[in-house]
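sorry for the late reply, my laptop died twice this morning and i had to redo everyting from scratch. anyway the thing you sent over, i finally got around to it. pasting the sequence first so we're on the same page, its 361 residues, then the predicted structure underneath. double check i copied it right bc i was rushing
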Amino acid sequence: MKIAFYGSSLLSSYWNGAATYYRGILKALAARGHQVSFYEPDAFDRQQHRDIDPPEWAKVVVYPATPDGLAGVLGAMSDADVVVKASGVGVFDTELTEALVERPRPDALRIFWDVDAAATLDEMAAAPDHPVRRALPDIDLVLTYGGGPPVIDAYRAIGARRCEAVYNALDPDTHHPVPPVERFRADLAFLGNRLPDREARVEEFFLRAASLLPEARFLIGGNGWKERALPANVEAIGHVYTAEHNAFNTTPRAVLNIARDSMARVGFSPATRVFEAAGAAACLITDAWEGIELFLEPGREVLVARDGQDVAHLIRELTPERAAAIGEAARLRITRDHVYEKRGAQVDALLRAHARKVVAA
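ok and here's the structure:
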């Protein structure tokens, strides 16, 4: 099938945490014979911070972040069998959502793909005239990259015809163990952009742990952290390109996952970082959230912390031998159960079921 996908960016992870997810899913769909075209705006300096060149498995169209630039790519919707509008494109989200309803052929599958479902649902609860909420009756399928039963039930309750969770996963070709790199040497590392709905949790789980372990070295990657005061034993290193993620995950004694506020509240929302770290055989510590055991077994494949004091205790007690054992157990679990090949099969089945329904009608 011809898939027209409108998202934030496939080529750049700069201020764009969904990049790994897009790449994994769409690469897996292309391997199943689908023709993928990805449309991304030239916005937020992402094109100046590309992680990858346009891949052979997708046609990537970068359009100017202007009304004329948008108009130049909307026509592709009418030529596609499947049209996807992702959440959080960052520019023209309302116009793209309206076009998702109006532009595709009558027999095309219209998908709203929510990569931040808990936050989107909060927005819609506060705004009954939210563009996505208005469009839901005309959208065939809502896909989310997390949220589990709470998000699925919430979407159905406000009018979604169908909602399915397609979780983050691992592409073993991209994320895997590598030799350590000295500049990433640390007792604990965290990778994530500085965002308003994450900062308080970073302060608790990461910065508080650092203050409790002044003799330990902490490393924080991602945009925005160099602009704020940090404890003396915390180094902010700025944006970490995708090609550096393996070394960032492999080198420290442990790496930390911290969910954003809404994802922690809803649960069932493992970030891409969870799978990237596990794929690199990192010893992962995560903040506690409902559903973690669906992906990794606490205590054996992942360590779970309720607060910064827990994080500090785990680091204090963590030997290199135990860290290595946890990391390897996580790698084996994720590569067995949670790879993008399986997520691609899940989405492929949904697309083909819709196609059969169209033919039968």
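The chain has a mean pLDDT of 96.
thats about all i looked at so far, will dig more tmrw
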